[in-house]
Amino acid sequence: MSTSGTPGPGPGGDRTATAPVTTEQAGSALVITINRPAARNAVDAGVAQGIAGALDRLEADPALRVGVVQGAGGTFSAGMDLKAAARGESAEIPGKGFAGLAEAETHKPLIAAVEGFALGGGFEIALACDLVIAAADAVFALPEVKRGLIAGGGGAIRLPRRIPHHLAMELLLTGRTVTADRGAELGFVNTVTPPGQALPAALRLAEEIAGNAPLALGAVKAVVRLADRLDEPAAFTAQREQLAALGRSLDLAEGIRAFTEKRAPHWTGR
Predict the structure, then answer these.
(1) Quick one: where's region Disordered (predicted)?
(2) Is residue 241 among the annotated active site residues?
């Protein structure tokens, strides 16, 4: 598959080049590309529906272990398409929220591969992912207050959970832009790459993650999500349920057997 820009058609890929969202399988990863470069990949109803559908595919296919979200044409996303919104289009999907992602509870890890602008809703898409890889020339901002709004697609909720409160408030109240390097300093960017290399780096990370037990990966996401919502005693109670389920799994037995036999495990997701 191609390693920058929009993935070309490949096995299991979306061959409709003009689709607002395209998908392509790369090993165990599903690359989900927002494909409206002429509109700086702004999110309209078509993009929201496309991302929601791509997440459904990711969740349903056992051969897919990790999702990677990127934007076509060197821009991640400029956020909500205000022209489409003015026409009455909704960029929300019931049960999944803004862009078909902001409120979705996915079991499989998601990585944002950010090139260029990730503004407003674009930044919120990245924050909805579990990891963020950003090119050195990437720029992040939540400028909604400059338009009389707030970052309602998860930005005002998630950013204070990702970085220190006062620094999050500075970005939310001023709408200032932040470089990828500053994002790494603050802690919402995992890795900064040379320009044009965010997707290859994200795919390498996806491959490393995909080498681990899929049930355990899903359990990690579930426990972290619960810990955000519950007090500590309740979170430990919920975690015990996840551990009990893992204890009954064939993958745990395979992991132990592979360790004792000094070989790579063969995960089945059961």
Answers:
(1) 1-20
(2) no
